[in-house]
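Table 4 source record.
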Amino acid sequence: MAEKSSQATDAAAKQRIITHMNNDHQDSLIRYLKYYIQLSSFSARNAYLVDISFNDLTILSSKGTSHAIPVKPAMTSWSEARTRVVAMDGDAVIGLGASNITVKKYKPPRGWMTAVFVTCALTYLCFCRRANFEPGSVFYDTLLRNVPSFAKFCRVIQPWLFWFMVVAHVGEASWMAKSRLEKHTVRMFSRVWWMWVLSCFVEGLGSSMRFDECVEEEKAKKEGMKH
């Protein structure tokens, strides 16, 4: 009876660890796959812990491939699990040149950033085609009919302005994804990831500034939990 009770206790402890890691620390699981198995952010994005033993962690990649990551030195009891997984994550953070601060939310524009976002969005909309600045279009007939010279100017610069914005903002969004989202383990192609990337594509610099604010807020929360 005592042996069965011990086995049940071990099984329950093991399941609690698996559930906790999957629900609250997927960012660590992603880093494990990237650092210890050297998977890409794409392949590691849906990391899922399926098993844990005193000797290793078994994690599924986004492709459904199972990867065993050794726990060194091996644990002797489940009470050591928290210390070991934290230490492993610390090594992964350093090895990847990443941050132990994970951003899990999107912060929308506010104040002057809202004005910039709306202005950029309207510019994309208006300058997406030359026909918008020609008679017969809703935009021309509604807003530009009385200023034909300005409409002609906009028609001339339309392809230059539109493609300049697209190229510049694609570059900014790519840099945002690499320098911030990947560094702070925002899961690739998740809802939050798309919101930051698309926001950066529309407005540019403002989204990077708000992301940095989120990082500082998370740092403050982590520091507060230590006291």
